[in-house]
Amino acid sequence: MTRLIVAAGGGGDAVAAAMLHAALYGDEGQAVILTYAWDRLLIDPLPGPRRAADFTGLERLTAAVWTVPAQARPIAPAGSTLPRLAAELPHTFALLDPYQGAEGLTHQLEDLVSHLEPESIDLLDVGGDILARGDEPTLKSPLADALALAACCQVNAPVRLLVAGPGLDGELLPEDVGDVLGPVVHTFTAGDAAAISSVLEWHPSEATALLAATALGVRGTCEIRDAGLPVPLTDESPTLHEVDLDDAVNRNQLARAIMATAHLDEAEAYSREICGYSEIDYERNKALWLKEQQPPKLDPAAIWAQLKQFEAEARARGVTHTTFRRVTEALNLGGSQRGELRDLMISARPERYAAPLWQIV
Fold first, then answer.
1. Pairwise CA distance, residues 267 & 271, whole Å
2. Average pLDDT in the 257-262 region?
3. SS (H, E, C) the chain
4. What integer pLDDT is reported at residue 30 of this predicted model?
5. Of 6, 4, 10, the residue nearest 32 (C-alpha)
6. Which residue in 30, 143, 307, 334 has the most C-beta neighbors within 10 A?
7. Is the pLDDT at 293 greater than 90, yes or no?
8. Using N-to-C axis directions, what is the helix angle for 279-292 and 143-152, rounded to 10°?
9. Is residue 359 a contact partner of residue 322, using CB atoms and an 8 Å limit?
10. What's the whole-number mean pLDDT along residues 29-56?
11. Whether 18 contacts 211, CB under 8 Å
């Protein structure tokens, strides 16, 4: 029995797919998780998603789809979390390549469905920005989700759309999508989070980290991303909702517009037209800025004074928790220093580690 889970936004959605499988399907073997190789710049300094040509060691699953096994490696300077995920999680990670637009993604998905004949197909999004209209002022990264949605609604097979942790990505408020969210399929528990706990020790995803933290009982307000977005952690946060696929497409203007795109740059152009920007443009600009920066050496003595000031200001904003990515960027450190900073903070203040978040007291 094979379950196919499409990680709508790549990155942390692929990790959440493993948590979803543990929660809904238990010991039914492994899933095939179809995902972009599209990581944060602190992992992959190149903007946009990676394609098969950006890796060595991929294995062909079908004529149109490659898998990313543990021994695969991104070709420098590219980076990817997928090989390590393949090494640590009991699932097969297959590569979504959006460079041929929504038409190319649809072809990949159809090819995979024909080959696997899966028991079920789930399209998973953490946070709910896949339900965005496109004009929301807080929306930051609509393109990846819209491409996945456009492909899934065109494939000749039943696809169930699932939204986990409404609002946890900081892009839309739960009330922004409440009118289209369907019934609660599951509320994630500590046992479900255990399936990905070791991965979240190193993976930079924030939305999936918040999903796991709330499944473990963490409540409060968490500050995320370089912009310091405040995200409420409530009893609704660890819920998983089913959403009617047609309702999502009718709501998502960008997904409707890009249905027939045959190139990623076409889809980007529609994103600029409908949403006013492309998230890949943001990554291009940030990558250039980061290239010019020389992050300071991590000085433990200086870090504690800076952290104390950051925490005092965060408390004044009503923040109770934050992510290690947020702290790293707030202290003007480089993405590669995130792990070192995290280890330093936890070793010195283990009682403040509300896994996988940092508690501000």
1. 6
2. 98
3. CCEEEEECCCCHHHHHHHHHHHHHHCCCCCEEEEEEECCCCCCCCCCCCECHHHEECCEECCCCCEECCCCCEECCCCCCCHHHHHHHCCCEEEEECHHHHHHHHHHHHHHHHHHHCCCEEEEEEECCHHHCCCCCCCCCCCHHHHHHHHHHCCCCCCCEEEEECCCCCCCCCHHHHCCCCCCEEEECCHHHHCCCCCHHHCCCCCHHHHHHHHHCCCCEEEEECCCCEEEEECCCCCEEEEECHHHHHHHCHHHHHCCCCCCHHHHHHHHHHHHCCCHHHHHHHHHHHHHHCCCCCCCHHHHHHHHHHHHHHHHHCCCCEECHHHHHHHCCCCHHHHHHHHHHHHHHCHHHEECCEEECC
4. 86
5. 4
6. 143
7. no
8. 140
9. no
10. 94
11. no
Given the structure tokens 């965060």, which residue do they identify? 314
- Interatomic CA distance for residues 164 and 321, integer angstroms: 20
- The β-bridge relationship of strands 120-126 and 3-7 is parallel
The number of beta carbons lying within 10 Å of the beta carbon of residue 311 is: 19
141-144 CB contacts, 8 Å cutoff, 24+ apart: 141/9, 141/171, 141/279, 142/252, 142/254, 142/271, 142/275, 142/279, 143/254, 143/267, 143/268, 143/271, 143/278, 143/279, 143/280, 144/8, 144/9, 144/10, 144/36, 144/38, 144/49, 144/98, 144/279
Q: Tell me the whole-structure pTM to 2 decimals.
A: 0.96
Write the pLDDT tens digit of every residue in 266-292: 999 999 999 999 999 999 998 998 877
Asked if residue 78 lies in contact with residue 50, where contact means CB atoms within 8 angstroms, the answer is: yes
Residue 207 above 90 pLDDT?
Answer: yes
How far, in Å, CA of 158 to CA of 155, rounded?
8
Which residues make Cβ contacts (< 8 Å) with residue 155, sequence separation at least 6? Answer: 106, 109, 110, 113, 121
Predicted confidence (pLDDT) per residue in 109-160, tens digit: 999 999 999 999 999 999 999 999 999 999 999 999 999 999 999 999 999 9
Residue positions counted in the chain: 361
Band (42; pLDDT cuts 50, 70, 90): confident
